[in-house]
Structures are given as C-alpha cells and as structure tokens.
Amino acid sequence: MTKKQKRPGAAKPVSKPWSGRFRNRTHRLVETFTSSLSFDRRLYPYDLQGSVAHCKALERAGVLSRKETAQILRGLEEVRSELESGRFSFAEEDEDIHMAIERRLTELIGPIGGKLHTGRSRNDQVALDVRLYLRDALGALLDSLRRFQRVLLEKARAHLDVVMPGYTHLQRAQPVLFAHHLLAYVEMIERDKGRVRDALVRLDVMPLGSGALAGTNYPVDRTYTARLLGFTQVSENSLDAVSDRDFAIEVLASLAMVMMHLSRLSEELVLWASQEFQFVDLPDSFCTGSSMMPQKKNPDVPELVRGKTGRVYGHLLALLTTLKGLPLSYNRDLQEDKEALFDAMSTVVASLEVSTELIKGLTVNRAMLAKAAGSGYLLATELADYLVTKGVPFRQAHVTIGRVVRWCLDRKQDLRDLTLADLRSFSDRFEKDALDVVTVEGAIERKAQIGGTARKRVEARIKALEKVLTLRS
Amino acid sequence: MTKKQKRPGAAKPVSKPWSGRFRNRTHRLVETFTSSLSFDRRLYPYDLQGSVAHCKALERAGVLSRKETAQILRGLEEVRSELESGRFSFAEEDEDIHMAIERRLTELIGPIGGKLHTGRSRNDQVALDVRLYLRDALGALLDSLRRFQRVLLEKARAHLDVVMPGYTHLQRAQPVLFAHHLLAYVEMIERDKGRVRDALVRLDVMPLGSGALAGTNYPVDRTYTARLLGFTQVSENSLDAVSDRDFAIEVLASLAMVMMHLSRLSEELVLWASQEFQFVDLPDSFCTGSSMMPQKKNPDVPELVRGKTGRVYGHLLALLTTLKGLPLSYNRDLQEDKEALFDAMSTVVASLEVSTELIKGLTVNRAMLAKAAGSGYLLATELADYLVTKGVPFRQAHVTIGRVVRWCLDRKQDLRDLTLADLRSFSDRFEKDALDVVTVEGAIERKAQIGGTARKRVEARIKALEKVLTLRS
Amino acid sequence: MTKKQKRPGAAKPVSKPWSGRFRNRTHRLVETFTSSLSFDRRLYPYDLQGSVAHCKALERAGVLSRKETAQILRGLEEVRSELESGRFSFAEEDEDIHMAIERRLTELIGPIGGKLHTGRSRNDQVALDVRLYLRDALGALLDSLRRFQRVLLEKARAHLDVVMPGYTHLQRAQPVLFAHHLLAYVEMIERDKGRVRDALVRLDVMPLGSGALAGTNYPVDRTYTARLLGFTQVSENSLDAVSDRDFAIEVLASLAMVMMHLSRLSEELVLWASQEFQFVDLPDSFCTGSSMMPQKKNPDVPELVRGKTGRVYGHLLALLTTLKGLPLSYNRDLQEDKEALFDAMSTVVASLEVSTELIKGLTVNRAMLAKAAGSGYLLATELADYLVTKGVPFRQAHVTIGRVVRWCLDRKQDLRDLTLADLRSFSDRFEKDALDVVTVEGAIERKAQIGGTARKRVEARIKALEKVLTLRS
Amino acid sequence: MTKKQKRPGAAKPVSKPWSGRFRNRTHRLVETFTSSLSFDRRLYPYDLQGSVAHCKALERAGVLSRKETAQILRGLEEVRSELESGRFSFAEEDEDIHMAIERRLTELIGPIGGKLHTGRSRNDQVALDVRLYLRDALGALLDSLRRFQRVLLEKARAHLDVVMPGYTHLQRAQPVLFAHHLLAYVEMIERDKGRVRDALVRLDVMPLGSGALAGTNYPVDRTYTARLLGFTQVSENSLDAVSDRDFAIEVLASLAMVMMHLSRLSEELVLWASQEFQFVDLPDSFCTGSSMMPQKKNPDVPELVRGKTGRVYGHLLALLTTLKGLPLSYNRDLQEDKEALFDAMSTVVASLEVSTELIKGLTVNRAMLAKAAGSGYLLATELADYLVTKGVPFRQAHVTIGRVVRWCLDRKQDLRDLTLADLRSFSDRFEKDALDVVTVEGAIERKAQIGGTARKRVEARIKALEKVLTLRS
After folding, report:
1. Which of A150, A422, D257, D431 has minimal Cβ neighbours within 10 Å of its Cβ?
2. Closest partner residue to D402 among A20, A184, A404, by Cβ?
3. B to C CB pairs, distance under 8 Å
C-alpha cells in the first residue's frame, strides 16, 4: 500500500474498477442516471452462465491455470448462491450486474477474481447476456403461444356445431362456423411462432470474444465457448457483435404482432360480451365491477390486453428510434434495450396467459349465435351463386340479388320470407329448388374447399393443428 | 349478520366492494393483470386531495352532515399519515389506490366511510387525480427547464468572446459565437415551456362530478369543488370528461419534443468531446470508463440522454395507439396512461437535471474552437458578399467565389493565403480593401440584424432571456 | 465569355447555381434521390410571397435600387402567372421550387434576377415557406373543425329528446341523451382547435434574415419583412431558426389527436350501424357494397377514417425520428418534413370533411335507442342512489343493489319487473316512491349539474357552443 | 331492357357493380375519399396474373366452359396490352384496379366478362395481388441488398492495408482495419437478407378461394391455382386469409431495420466527411452545394438516407396502428396497407441504390486514418494485456495502465513517448519487450480469433462472404 501510494496518480480515492485514468469520482446524479442495476440484475443467471463458460475457455487457452479456474468457478457458484437466496448485497458503486458480480467475486476469492475479465469487455458480455435471456424468454413465449392455441382448438372442437354470422366491415356477411372463426386466431399464432422461431435462429450467435470492439488478444477458442453455452454459431465481426441490437428489434417486432393479434381477439370479445351482441358470457372471475354502478360486469381483461398493445408498439418504436443514426460500435444509448425488452416480454406473456384462461372460461351463447346467423341477408350470396348455376354470369346475378335485397328491405322482410313467385319476378332462372338450396347449412357446407368453413374442412384443420401442437411441444 | 345471510345472494364470499352482482371471486391471474396499485399508488396525495374536496362539496350539497364530514376528513387525514409514514398496509384485494384508500377509511371510521364515494365514480376520480398529478409535475418540469436555460445562459455569457465554426450538414459553414450556438438551445426550451404552459391551461379543468359517465344525481356545486382544488374551469360534458386523455397525450408530445431538443444537444456534446473535434472537455465526474480499455473516458450522460429519446417517443406512441378507435366513454384500456406518463415525466426531468449539471461542468476548449473557426473556407460567403457590395449580382458572386475555392482546393491552400492578384484573376471587382474586410471578426460583427451572431446581438439576447427567466420563475 | 473561359475553373460544364467549387456534375441517381420538386412545388405561392417581401426589404436596406426592385417584382409576377396557369416549365436541374423560381426569374429578367438571393439562403427561405403554408393550412383546418362541430351541434339539437344507453367498457351503463353523446365530440374538437390556435401562435415567427445559419450581412429590417408577411415576431436566433422544426412536429401532434378523436367517433359509427346495434342508418351515398355479397352496405367511410389514423400517427413519429440526434444547424434530413406535413394535413381535412357530411346524413333510429336505453339494468345506480337518500351509506347501497341485480339475472328478469316487496326483501329502506323515482326520465333529469346529461344542461351547452362558433368564425 | 325496367328496383341509375341494393349514388366526396385507384393501379400486372389463374381454375372446376375461358383470357390480354401501352382509360366510377379491369373486360367481351368474378371477392383478390407484388418487390430488394454488400466487400478488399481507430462512445478505442469496419455493415445486411427470406417463406401462401370471408361455393382446386401462380401453400382459413396483413407488417419491420442499418452507415459517412474527421472524400457528383455559401460541399445523400429512416419507421407504425383492435374479417381500414408498403419499399430500394453508388465512389484518406489510429491512447489495452502476460490479474493491470494514461494526460504526452523507465515506475512487471509488443500492427494482428480484426481473419471473412454472394445470387 505504501508503495502504491507513491506511484503517480495513486492518491485519489478510487471507487470504480475503471477509474485509474480519472481524477474525480462519478457525480451522484450520474451514478443514478447511468446505473442499469435496477433492471439488469435480472440478467444475473445469464451473466453467471456466460462467466463460467468464459472462465473455462480462458483455461483451455492457457490464460488461466487449472487452479485459478477452479477458484473462480467456486467463487461464481458462491455468488450465484448469494444471488439466488437474496443474500447478495449490492454496493453503491455497482453500475451494473456485471460489475456487481465481479466485485463480489473478488471480495470472495481475492485478486484472482480480477482475472475473469481477461479478454472480455462489458460490451460483448452484455450482448451475450441479452441473447441468453432472450433464448430462454422466447422458449417460454413459444410455450405460452402453444397453450393459447390449444385452448382455442379445444374451444373450437367443443363448438363444431355452432354457426355464427361472419362479418366484413362489422356487417353481417355470410354464415361461418364459430370454430372456423376461432381457428383464424390459431393460424395467426402459428405465424407468430414462425417469426419467433426465425428470431431464435438469428439469435443463435455467440458474441463473446469480440472484446470491447476489436476482438480479443487471447487465443480463446470461441467455438468452444459457444458449445458450452449451447450456441451453434459465433459472431463473425467484432464491431458488429457489440453494436448489433437487431435481435432485440426483431423480437420486439414479433411481440408487437402477437399483441396486434390479441388486440383483435380482445376487440371481438368486448363486442361479443356486449348487450347488443350477447354472443358470449365471460366468466365472473374474469370481469370486474364498477365502483358506482351496481349492475356492471366489465370485460376488463380483453380491454386491458387491447390497451397494452400500444405499450408493446411503443417499446418497438423506442428501440428503433434509439438505434437510428448511431455510429459504430458500442454506444451507451444501447443500454436502453433492456427495459423495453423486459417489459414487452412480460406484457405479452401475461396477456397470453390471461387470454388463455379467459377463452377457457368463455360460455358461448349458442341460441343468440344461431339467431344472428339465421336472420338478415346472409344468404344473398347463395342466391346469387344459385343463379350462376343456372347460367347467369355472376356479375349479373349479383345485381339481380341486390335488387331482391332492396325490395325486401323496402318491405322490411327477410330473404326467408320470399316465395318462388317473388324470386321469379326478378329472374326467370329461379326454379323450385332455389328455396331448398338457400339455407344456412347449405351455405356452410358448400364452402368445402381448403380454408373454407364447411364442417369437414374445419374438423380436418383442427386435427392437423392438434398434430402440429403435439409434434412441436 | 344473521339477517343479512338470509337475504338473496348474500351467501357468497365477498371480496370486492362491487361484487354484489358477482357469483365468483376474481381469478388470481386477473387480480395481477388488472391491478394498477403498483404504479398508481404514487397518486395517493392527489387522491386524498380530491377526496377531501369531494367530501366538503357533499357536505355543502347537504348529502353529508357536518358530523359525517368531520369524521371522514379526520379519517382521510389518518390515511394520509399512514401512507406518508409507510405504515399503510395494502390488502390483496385492493385493485387500485382509490379502493385501497376507501377500504382503509372504512376500517378506520366504520360504514360512514362508505358515504365518501356518493355521487362519484373511479372514472371521474382518476381523471381528477391524473390532472392534479400533472399540474404538479408540469410545474416541476417548468422549473427544470428554467434551470437548464439558466445554466446555458451563464455558460453563454461566460464565453461571449469565443468564436466557433457554425455548421450546416456537419460541414463548417460560417463562424458564429459559441454563445450564439448555446442560445439556440435556450430558444428551443423557451418554446418547450410555451407548450407546457398551454398544456397546463387545457389541464385546468375539473372533472369530478362527471360520475361514471352521465353526471351526478347529487346537487354538488362543481365550481365549489373546482375552487377548493385550485381549478378555474369544470368539465362541460360528463362522457367526454371520463373518456378524455388528450391532456396526457399533449403532455407526452411536449415531453417528446423536449427530449428531441436534448438529443440534439447531446449529439453535439458527443461530437465535441471526440478526439476529432476536441471542442469541449466533459467533467470526469460525468463520464465513465471502460471495463476493458484503461484509457477510455466516455460521454455516457449525453449518450444516454440521446438514447432515452426513443423511450419518450415510445410512450407518446403507446398512448396514441391505445386511444385509437376507443368508443365512449371510459374503457379499461385507459389505465395504460399512467405508467407511460410517469416514466416519461421522470425520464425527461432526470435528463434535464443531468444535462444541466453537465453543461455547468463543461470546459470549453477555446484554442481548438478558434483554430477551427479560422481555418477552412468559412469566409467564402463574406468574399461573395464583398463582390455584391461592388455591384456584382449575388448569384454571380457566388459562382465566382466557388471557383476561387475550387482553385484553392486544387492548390491545397486556404483563403487566407490568397493575394489580391489571385483574387483579381477571378474578378476585377476585387479591390485592396477585400483582404481587410474578410476576417472572422468582421464576419461575426456584420451579422448584426436581429437573430444574427454579432456580439452585441447575442449579448442583448442573453439579457432579454435572463429577464424572462427572472420574471417567470 | 471569352474572358471568362480563360479564368481558372471555368472550363467545366456548369449546371447548378452552386457548382462553382465542384468538378463533376451531380449523379443522375442523386438528382432523383435528393430532388424535392415533386412535392415542394406546392409551396410556390408562399415562396413567391416570401421573395416579394425579401425583395422589398432589400430595397429598403439600400441593397437593391428602386429600379432593380421593380424589375424583380415584375419578374416574380410573371413567374407567378406562369405557375398559376400551368405554363411554367420545370428544368431537369431544378432541385427544388426555390431554385426553379430563381432560375426562371433570371431567364425572364436577366442577371439582375441573381440579386434576389442576396442575404438569403434556402435554409431560411424554406423555413419561411413552410410557416406560410402552415399558417394558411391551419386556418383552413380550423374552418373544417368548426364546420364539423356545427353539424354535430345541429344533429344534437335535432335529437334533444332522444335517449340512448351510455356505455362504459362497451357495457350499457346509464341512460344519456344522444345529444349529450354527440356533444362529447364537440368538446374534443374544441380542444383540438385550442391546440391548433396555440400552434399558430408559435408559428407566428418570421425566420427570413437568418441566412444559412449565422444571420445576414445586409442591413435588412427584419421586422419590416415580418410586417409585410403578416408576422408579429421575428426569430431571435439564426442557428435555431434554420434548424427548428418544432412547429411541424407540434402541428403533426395536433393532427394526430384530431384523428384519434375521429377514430373514436368512427368506431362508434361502425358499431351503431351494425345489425346488432342498429342505432343509426348511414346514407346509401356514404356506403359501398361488396363485389361478391349482394346484400352488403358497408360503412367504408368511418372505417377508412379510423384506418387513416395510423397514417397520421406514422407521420408524427417519422418526423420525431428524423429530428432525433441531429446536430445544429440545417441538415438535409429536414427535407423530410414536407411530405409528412402535406399528407397529414390533407388526410385530416379530407377525413373531417367526409365525416361532416356523414354526420349530416345520419338517420337516428329512435326506436332502437329508446328500447336499448329502457331495458337492461341501466337504472341500478338510481336504485342505489335512492337508498342513499334514505340514509344508507353509498357503498352499502351499492352492495345491496348488486344483489338485487344478481337476483334478477338469476330469474332472467328486468329491474322494471321488480315489485316493492321484492325490493324490500333486500332492504327495508325501500318505500313506495322507489318505483316512481327509478325511471329513465328521472335518471336523465337528475344529472343536472354542469356537464351532466339532464336535458336543460345539454340544451344550455348547445347554446353556449353555438355562440362560441358564431363568435370565432 | 323494357322487361328489366319493369322489374322492381331497376329504375335507379346504376353506376357501381354492387349497387343493386342501393337507392342512391355514391357521394362525390366519398368517391374521392375511398378510391384506391391512384395507388393500387400499380398492382395491375399482379391483378391480371391472378385473374388468369382464377379463370383457368374456374374452367378446371367446370364453372367456365372452354370457350368462355378462352374469351376471358383473350380479353384479359387485351386489357393488359391497354394498360401496358397507357391506352387504358380509367372511368370515374372505377373504385380500384380490380373493378377497373373487370369493367373494361366486360366492355371488351360482353356479359361473359361478368363470369370472371365467380367465387371470388375483392377481399381475397387484393390479398393475392399484394402478395404477388411483395414477392417480386422482395426479390428486387434482395438484389439491391446483395449489390450493396458487393460494393462494400470490394471497398474492403481494396483497403485491406488501411488501419483506422475503432470507436466506442465515439471515443477512439482500439485500432481496427478499415475493411473490418466495412464488413460490419455486410454482416448487418446479411441478417437483413435473412429476415427478407423468412418473410418470403411466410408470404408463400395463396389466399384466392377464400371468397369474401367464408370460402368459395365452387369446386375450384386451390392448389392448382397456387401452382399456376408459383405458390407452394394455400391459406388454411378463409377468415384469416382476408383479414391478415402480417406479411405487410413483417416486411415493413424488415425494411425499418434495413433503414436503421443505412442510417448508422450514413451517420458515419457524414462524420467521416467532416473537416474534423477527414477520413473520406465523397465524390462531387454525390454532394450538393449551398445556395448561399460558395465553399460548401454537403453530404446530402447520407443525410437524406438517415432522414428517410423516420419515414419508413412511420409506415411500420402506421400499419401496426391501423391493425390494432380490428375485428375479423375484412375491414376497409386494411386499404391503408398499400401506400405504406409501396412508399417504404421504394424508399429503401432508392436508399440502397444511392448508398451503393456512394460507397463505390468513396475516396479513403489513408493518411488521416493512419494518423488517427497511431495517436491517442488506442494501445492502452495492449499495455494492460502485456501485464497480464506477465501474471498480473487483468483488473489490476487495467488500473495500472489507467494511471499511466492519467500521467501521460497530465504531461500532454502520448503512450508512444513513454520510456521503459516510465513504465517501470508504474509496475515492475514491465520488461524490455514491452515497447516492441505495443504497436498498432501488433494490436491488429493479435486480434486473431474468429470475428477479430486481424488481417488474415478479415481477409478470410471477405472470401467467405464473396462466396455467399456468388452462391445465392
């Protein structure tokens, strides 16, 4: 110590591991403003995982001795145990989880702990940690997406006989199976999973060994580190590896789309639960009341899911904005990636979970759906297609049936009330069979091509999707 | 109790104040998903302030007796004291700060506490709370903006003699005073303050008394409540009052613009602190080092401020998205306003504070600035304007000087190295005085119209702005 | 000419007014990529207006002679006439409307045209042009907003007797007047107008005389130019004046909020026009049909208005992103402001216009609204408030009525079907008058405080708003 | 005709193919507001391609006779020829390109043209058209991305011997090869291409046969249509197929990331071309001048590319917003997808093209780069790593070298000026070889692990990437 104090620059109170070239301590405001510890501490398991692998790679490269390696690994285990049990105490000068762990390691095992960071920088370290975190989180997300699909499939299968009005422009359009409607969401989620899986492939790149920006001076075998950590590729450019946040943006874009899908379903649930639609009953346990109006039972869950869509969009935009125009390589702006990712991920998973349970508890009001599907002019297209079978060009058939509808509207009557004579007053091509052909059941069953709402098609699709879910999970 | 239990519907375990018409308890997942307590608890002082005023208005309207009013007010004070001291314990079934406070009030003073919510709904209550919060927060924001301006003005005044190159397209353009450059940011903040003040005017509308959506059945004098709470207007439409989040979006848009301004200054600080510019030195205490590279002193603060711009943009977008397409009146989606507002507000205030201290600690490298302003072709426009004074149309003068520059570039020489003979080979209009006129000092002093960079103009503007800051703070 | 050609640098083919210092012509790709002529040509009236004022200010400053001024003004008039009549032919090398006009001016009046740009840069010129454009455009926007309000007020007045269910969470909540509901939108637009007016105040700053970035060398009286152009203030900092796009972002933020409001109304119109609600009929002339389904009459207009909300949000975000992190002063990135502004402005004005006509043509289905308002449990709060008048604390009354509702739900009966005996089985406080008090009419009329839905309140508010519209237009 | 006129509803002037049930013509304002013809006409080749395939599938299904098919196909060819040659005249009542083509077809071949739309709706038709367009556009985008990579690789290879300072936080950090820096962008683009290819896979789904929403009544073989159009999959749910715009959002998200990458390179080019950096010279033909300052040569191209990033982000956000909360199935809001896609696509392709040419024309200022890489404290990490090789724990070595740097800073001297004695005053571990080891060349060559900046690594990576580009294009 005496010796050290005589050395130049040594007289200053040192509080940071990097403060050798600094004359003054970090300003209190700056400590608070720049610290990431409040949110990056959740990365600790990944940070430890990365450090263990890095330590082993250093040993293999001959940078650490067998004994040093053992000491460091033991120390890291002790740190892990402290963190897991909540005994770990963070110090004021800890800027982030990386420095907190290294500090504690050195407290536990002495200066040898200072060898762990050899050939490594926080720049490649955090790139690794976030990738490890996302690999886990996306795995969990895929599970949530699958669970959601399963519940939708179960609900669909249990209601294969329920017909409802299909809508375009929120106007009743043609009858469809309720199951077919639910399956539309299963397809959306299927695409979401595809995007997540693609993101996982691009995430499967190990950045450690990129150092601060230029690579490492030590002969570590990066493919060995990658293997230890379960990656199949290593990053091919050190500057890119520490600057790149594509993976975070790609994940946020995929999450934004999941929320978009959930927002559409949520909108429908809110509509369906209204007194005007009355298509479904939401379980009491998924609704809340009003502090003022005693009769209220509000669909808070789908409303909140819909509302949280904005939040996830916002995170995507935030990170895109942050990255815009940043020169290479690492810039401190990149620290903003984590809170956006963490909050987006937990928002989406929570929204999926609660939506899954909500769908599970949903009661379908078969009577109302049947009534809605049966009335109105939902069979007008069937009538037009009938005329087509009698040789009328479709465009002309369309015009004719349009007039039929207009005529009914003026008389406030339904298509069902039309007689053959009525029909024939619009076109001589109408024959006796017209009134038999034009039924809700017929309309459903005729849509028998792939993707159509015919029952056998819908059933087959349920089966196929169930198989997909079995195979992949 | 025995009596109650015989009453219909009474046998069910009741956990929520609104659960009379419900058969089942709220699902655990839903409790977590919908609870706003983790973030809206910070509204408690405003919630209490609103409740006190509401209580007094109910008394005045004859709805509460003098004694009841006194009891409730005393209870509210007790609740406040518990909350302030941290003794308040939140219950699992508390959905939000409003219900938590009402619950506790009733525990403290008995069923009479249940009278407080008469003629009120959480819909108008939360609209009030957020307005009260924002009124305070915007006041504090104005203070932060003013402090930031003051530091910029002080820095400008202290460097009135420093010339620097002004830039367009990040190319050196014309010499300007360093103070003039700093004042540009004071002007931006001046506009920011204008927007905040306008937002405060539109915020000055008291929504309580709008009930859940339709108004209140009780003859409360809403202007009295408004007066108690320091508002000058009351909302004129109950449906609008509970659906409206314009004020939140307007605030977020203003905050986004503040961050945009800070991001521009931050970008400049990062540039100026680079080895290439060397225009300023940031204080050690505002920089951090590298975990790997011992020489590094990084401008983390301006980088992070710049990065956090995305975050605030994201919150603006999030709320805009959330509001899009919502039917009237209150929908649960609106709950998403608070976290966005809180985080945006604290991000902006922290960014302002840390930027204020950073500017205060900034060392200006006068030598480098002078060198940069003196070299290059920054006086080319002065030469063109010289020709104009000799009767050459500006466009033609511009072309001539363009050629002079080209000629110098080819010879790798500076404008300063030109002889009169050189100049006259481009135009006979050049006379002896040309070489005297074209100086950095002359270039600065000739920009003497309002808004120009002439020293007397800049000094006058500093004085004017100092006065503005004195008057309004 | 012979003389000129001997001069250094003169041998190169010159195509741009600024090309003196350049050796090579602009690349064809770059011409296309950087040209703004395709969109900024719409600024020509403002560019001419600015040039006229600049020319007069130059004369007053003694920079231009009386004769030169007259020539230039005559030339500008000729240019205007060519532009207005479509006779103006743009040249390939015209980069933007400013250079196109100057080029043509010089063709028409000779080299003297080259004097117009004395002491001016495109940087301050375009800042002026966009402000002049926005001043006009915001004036027109205010007119469109007022027209929209007027139609809403007329519709409200014409339906003062129509009751509808008010909603929270899209669940029927309490009865309100249809007029009250429409007035909510008038209030929103009133705030929109306030924001536009505030933006106009901040827009009222004349930037000309800021030059490229540092001010002007010529003794122009900027306040004179401002007066000629109808501005009350001049910019106070030249660097800021050419870098500032706050006014554009502020306008875009205001436009985004207008669209948000329109999106909410549009959502309601889509709902109301559905077969489930049937609250309104949209005029045939505002709907379109389906290419396939003959019966369809789709509410395309509100759907598109709702959809275009994203577009305007996108423009706001685009400009915020563009501005993020730009150093001072002018950077070419700023060119991106115009298309965003133009498209946002025309989208909003078109959406307002078409919504105005749509509301005008709307048929209100009084029977359906009455039926919807009468059924359900919309009077539950009235029942609770009844108990309050009998001394029951509100919270307890709420629970009691919640149980009443539950009991009715179980019996599938309405509140209207309750007998006094039924009521008294829940609370002894119910007396004979209960059944008289609890009516839709009573519920409406009791909401008689400011902002409430009582008819006299609504009528008074219509009157007040009509007066506001008369005064300000 | 006489007969028809007696039929009910026939007396009204008919202007739209779907107007049978309508009483009134479309309002002029609505025609303008809802028309998509101004932008969707660019889809005509895809619309015709789809119609040809649909026609053949109808024939195969027995819906059209051989003769009818031939007639229609001939008619479509005639329409194509008119459109290609510009002879096609659009009619006022044409709402979109689909109806325009069908109208013209029927004019050309008579009522038989009205058979083409059998079993088809504009909803599935436009979903097909946009997919076909995107398939082409993404193919072209991949080509542009590859061309850009090739130019970067060529530039890198041509400058393999050039060293530059690598940066973190825009502070000089460690020396890297200029080629290594350029390769970072090649890696980014490689990921961009991966995302585009993944999007193409998800795009490879044929939606035709989904009808308006429920499927088709006709026994068309959808896999046959898909084969004709070069798709490998058909959509599996008709409701989803007409509501889905995932593919558009996914493309916009990928485009946003491409722009983000280009914005980072553009920022660097702007920096490098500044008088402070002077790392590169941009070709004259890629810069423009100032209307006022004769010496200016501005990097407009990278500035504009950077600025246009906001525009593409805006389009992504716009479409996400539009989709939020839309119920199934088709809603008119979806029409907003096209302009966003078209503009984003052309912005990105133009930005890539112009950036490609710019990089090609870039002159690298080797002297400046060498000087910048040699000075400063870029070798501090090498010194620390030297101590590590002598057994000092890295963290301690870091602190020691930090003090060395501090000492040099105080003396305003460089690391190069240190003597062995100087070094040994900080640590006895320094030996004679220290001064040999610590060179720029050594620093570069020691970074020899995968992804490092050692020349052999960079060269190998160039080779590998060149191979990738050969194989895939």
Report:
1. D431
2. A20
3. 445
D287 reaches C (C-beta below 8 A): yes
**Does A166 lie at the interface with D, CB-CB under 8 angstroms?**
yes
Q: Report whether pLDDT(D55) > 80.
A: yes
- Count CB neighbours of B152 within 10 A: 24
- Arithmetic mean of pLDDT, D28-50: 94
Span B137-191, pLDDT tens digits: 999 999 999 999 999 999 999 999 999 999 999 999 999 999 999 999 999 999 9
Question: C250, C44, C257, C225: which is closest to C133 by C-alpha?
Answer: C44
Partner chains of A (3+ C-beta pairs under 8 Å): B, C, D
Chain D residue numbers with beta carbons less than 8 Å from the beta carbon of A462 are none
> Is D346 among the residues known to form the active site?
no
By C-alpha distance, the chain B residue nearest A93 is B288
- ipTM rounded to 2 decimals: 0.95
Cβ-based burial of A155 (10 A; exposed 0-12, middle 13-18, buried ≥19): middle
| Neighbour count for residue B314 (Cβ, 10 Å) | 31
**D329 preceded by cis ω (within 30°)?**
yes
User: Nearest CA of chain A to the CA of C32: how many Å?
Assistant: 23
Q: C460 vs chain D: nearest CA distance in angstroms? A: 33
CB–CB contact C398 B20 (8 Å) = yes
**What are chain D's domains?**
26-118 (1.10.275.10), 123-371 (1.20.200.10), 380-438 (1.10.40.30)
Which site among B164, B171, B412, B415 would you substitute to test the D interface, given the most D Cβ atoms closer than 10 Å to its Cβ? B171
Residue among D388, D400, D452 minimizing CB distance to A238? D452
Question: Which residue in chain A has the smallest CA separation from D106?
Answer: A395
Angle made by CA atoms B247, B250, B256, in degrees to the nearest 5 = 140
Separation CA B396–CA A463 (nearest Å): 80
> What is the distance between the alpha carbons of residues B355 and B120, in angstroms, rounded to a whole number?
43
The Cα angle at residue B122 between residues B116 and B127, in degrees rounded to 5:
115
Dist. CA D322–CA D333, nearest whole Å: 7
B230 CA: distance to closest CA in chain D (Å): 37
Alpha carbons C459 and C465: distance in angstroms, whole number: 10
Given the DSSP bridges, would you call strands A233-234 and A205-206 parallel, antiparallel or unpaired?
Answer: parallel
pLDDT higher at C340 or C374: C340
Q: Please check whether residue A309 touches B, CB under 8 A.
A: yes
Residues of D in contact with A453 (CB under 8 A): 214-215, 238-239
Tens of pLDDT, residue by residue over A412-424, are 998 888 999 999 9
Burial label for D53, CB within 10 Å (0-12, 13-18, 19+), is buried
Q: Could you give the CA distance from residue A379 to residue C295 in angstroms, rounded to a whole number?
A: 9
